[in-house]
Amino acid sequence: MSDRPRTDLGWFEELYAKTEQDPPWQRERQRISLEQWVEAQGLDGANTKRAAVVGCGLGTDAEYIASKNYNTVGFDLSPTAIRRAQELHPDSNVEYVTADLLRLPSDWRHAFDLVVEVWTVQALPDPPRTQAIEAIASLVAPQGDLIVIAIARDDDGPDHRPGDGPPWFLNRNTINKFDTLTGLTARDIHLGPDPEAPDRRQSWTAHFTRS
Ligand SMILES: C[S@@+](CC[C@H](N)C(=O)[O-])C[C@H]1O[C@@H](n2cnc3c(N)ncnc32)[C@H](O)[C@@H]1O
């Protein structure tokens, strides 16, 4: 990996392109918090609803959402991640797209019944973190849902300090921006042990809707 500053988002592409190994966040099964939330909601896209998976990486969560019968777009800033996602899932129904959250296609505005954000915002410094939160919210259709899953800070301190991160684990103030800045409504903001590392860290599972 290069020594370029992590405020330059090009490091994601470098990481995907340079290593033959998977990035540290990659796993073979969908994020457990996401699965728990989807199952609890009983979600089924009935092959008519549209979903967007933000910062989809190698596609694990996008494949899971597609298995719930959503017409699913998985997008990522990194062209290599998108190519590898397509190679990993050759029979996929997911539409994998290289796209920058900070420059979204205009026809994606309010276009998705379900928007899934897992661990992307915490990988971004601020700026552009606040802009990214607004962009994620802009994807949600009327009556649509947004689910945000992120590792939580274990105190109420600032979640972006020069010199630390990435990642920058999120505090409550940042989670609240998903509704206070965007016009979405918070339905449930849950903070609890991360099911993937319950002894080591807390995580947010936060559900927002657009009325
Ligand atoms: C920490 S990884 C998480 C990947 C995946 N969501 C997961 O949970 O495994 C963050 C992902 O967001 C992508 N990303 C970062 N900035 C982005 C942007 N501006 N637009 C789209 N994707 C971005 C990165 O390339 C990377 O795949």
Corresponding CATH architecture: 3-Layer(aba) Sandwich
> Mind summarizing the main beta sheet?
7 strands, mixed
Q: pLDDT average, as an integer?
A: 92
Helix content: 25-40%
Ligands, ions, cofactors = S-adenosylmethionine
Strand line-up in the sheet with most strands: 3-2-1-4-5-7-6
Shape: globular
Secondary-structure element string: HHEHEHEEHEHEE
Oligomer: single chain
Q: Supply the number of structural domains.
A: 1
Descriptive tags:
globular; disordered N terminus; Rossmann fold; seven-stranded mixed sheet; 6 helices; binds S-adenosylmethionine; 25% strand; 211 residues; alpha/beta
Verbal overview:
The chain has a single domain, classed as Rossmann fold, CATH 3.40.50. The chain is built from six helices and seven strands. The protein has helices at 10-18, 32-41, 60-67, 79-88, 129-138, 172-180; strands at residues 50-54, 71-76, 95-98, 112-118, 140-152, 185-193, 202-209. The protein has a seven-stranded mixed β-sheet, sandwiched between helices. A hairpin with an 8-residue loop joins strand 6 and strand 7. Helix 5 crosses helix 6. The chain starts with 9 loop residues before the first helix and ends with a strand. The relative contact order is 0.14. Bound molecules: S-adenosylmethionine (SAM). Residues 9, 12, 25, 31, 55, 57, 76-78, 81, 100-102, 118-120, 123 line the site of S-adenosylmethionine. The site of S-adenosylmethionine has 17 residues, from loops.
